[in-house]
User: Which sequence fits this backbone?
RNA sequence: GGAGAGGUGGCAGAGUGGUCGAAUGUACCUGACUCGAAAUCAGGCGAUGUCGCAAGGCAUCCGUGGGUUCGAAUCCCACCCUCUCCGCCA
């Protein structure tokens, strides 16, 4: 959520920055709502003030044993106007809030301008793709090894679900353990285990609701309430600080969590239908930071580096891309994507997304800390995948494939694989 | 699921219809004392919104949502959560 004061004081600037994202801000609608809000609020609060003053007089008169009937008659006359004002405000404010809640974050000035993903800017490439003659994709490799069973996933649940078995399942688990250990022991993150089902308030806090409900799996409950399956650990972990006022010296907070992620992928039918690239359920190791506002831009570079370290230790070639204004997510002020090399697709594919949200999520969540003046101030939140485990498995299978269809286990993972050096070797 | 207790400021904890946004303690900030610190003493110290150039004013907030009343932390209704005991259970 944007700062309402910014819209009031500099609406053209906000509209201009949002235009970079391809969004047209309805400034006339905002100004009309704002004018109405101001009129109603001032009017209503004025009436409330009158009522309060008169009611206090009644209290004092009665306390002294004097007659208060004249004042009581006066305050009774306020009743209808007051009720009408309060009702009108109660009707208007949700519309006002909704307008604000549907506005995405403003892109940081360093974000490249562009309409869509073609406007993204490559920052760097790391590693050199190994020459593989006629590379096979992870579907062929995993199926042949008996470790990926897409048909079983379809039978049990439906499309976009996969079953992993044997050494492939273990490799998947090894990747998770490796990532968690790396981030906790070398990058200073605290491991957390969180719920996978969260309430609507949490989804609102990180920005998935109200605008992106169709991307989520929802679980209705018998009492009429609802829970949502998390689409990323970002939601439960970032919401740890929702409604909190933190002491300044606990910042920065750095959390890492491994969770399954659930996405309905509505609107992506026909995209990446083959294999494990786009699933309704996948595992991810997520990095989350809560920092002081003056440190969030340094933190974004560091956090991205932590995600890159995973790829480097696995010796997987990748590139780092700065998303342009038109390709960024709703809540982000700036995002770097890490894209891993997939030989069978002969291209780089997203495996991590690292963003600074500045105060956008914190304002929705009312997540604050006490600053030097001892006043509550919104903190900044960041997160990034470190990494998406399913896609990392795909990358390992494809980049470490051998001519005979076996998979060499990356050196960094062998300790997690009981020393196994090769999967599917005779 | 059943029975009971409880949810008040950063924390602890008073407050059962009228100057209560809320005693007190603690934490925190400022000052005094001190070479410095601790202790002690004095003062200050909730959040959000809104109006205003400002000084400052006003509104709202005592788990949440309704209701009663001129007036609600306080009374009524519903719900949520926490704790204790019982039942069930990986």
Assistant:
């Amino acid at each position: 959520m944007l700062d309402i004061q910014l819209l009031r004081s500099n609406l053209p600037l906000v509209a201009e920055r949002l235009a970079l994202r391809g969004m047209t801000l309805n400034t006339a609608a905002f100004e009309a709502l704002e004018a109405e809000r101001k009129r109603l609020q001032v009017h209503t609060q004025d009436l409330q003030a009158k009522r309060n003053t008169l009611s206090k007089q009644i209290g004092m008169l009665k306390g002294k044993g004097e007659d208060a009937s004249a004042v009581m008659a006066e305050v009774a006359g306020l009743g209808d106007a007051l009720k009408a004002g309060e009702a009108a405000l109660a009707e208007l404010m949700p519309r006002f809030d909704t307008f604000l809640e549907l506005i995405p974050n403003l892109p940081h000035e360093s974000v490249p301008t562009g309409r869509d993903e073609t406007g993204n800017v490559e920052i760097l490439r790391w590693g050199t793709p190994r020459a593989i003659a006629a590379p096979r994709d992870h579907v062929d490799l995993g199926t042949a090894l008996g470790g990926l069973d897409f048909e079983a996933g379809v039978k049990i649940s439906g499309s976009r679900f996969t079953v992993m078995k044997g050494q492939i399942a273990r490799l998947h688990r090894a990747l998770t353990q490796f990532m968690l250990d790396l981030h906790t022991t070398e990058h200073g993150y605290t491991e957390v285990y969180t719920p996978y089902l969260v309430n609507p308030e949490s989804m609102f806090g990180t920005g998935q609701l109200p605008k992106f409900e169709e991307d989520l799996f929802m679980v209705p409950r018998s009492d009429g309430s609802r829970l949502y399956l998390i689409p990323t650990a970002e939601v439960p972990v970032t919401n740890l600080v929702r409604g909190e006022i933190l002491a300044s010296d606990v910042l920065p907070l750095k959390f890492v969590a491994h969770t399954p992620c659930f996405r309905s992928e509505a609107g992506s039918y026909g995209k990446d239908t083959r294999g494990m690239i786009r699933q309704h359920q996948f595992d991810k190791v997520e990095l989350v930071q809560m920092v002081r506002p003056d440190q969030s831009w340094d933190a974004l570079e560091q956090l991205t580096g932590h995600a890159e370290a995973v790829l480097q230790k696995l010796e997987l070639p990748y590139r780092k891309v700065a998303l342009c204004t038109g390709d960024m997510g709703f809540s982000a002020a700036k995002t770097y994507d890490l894209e891993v090399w997939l030989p069978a697709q002969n291209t780089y594919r997203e495996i991590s997304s690292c963003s600074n949200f500045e105060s956008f999520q914190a304002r929705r969540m009312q997540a604050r800390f006490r600053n030097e003046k001892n006043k509550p101030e919104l903190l900044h939140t960041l997160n990034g995948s470190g990494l998406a485990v399913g896609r990392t498995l795909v990358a390992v299978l494809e980049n470490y494939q051998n001519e005979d269809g076996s998979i060499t286990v990356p050196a960094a993972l062998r300790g997690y694989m009981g020393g196994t050096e090769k999967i599917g070797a005779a």
User: Anything to note?
Assistant: The longest strand of chain A covers residues 347-358. The longest helix of chain A spans residues 27-63.
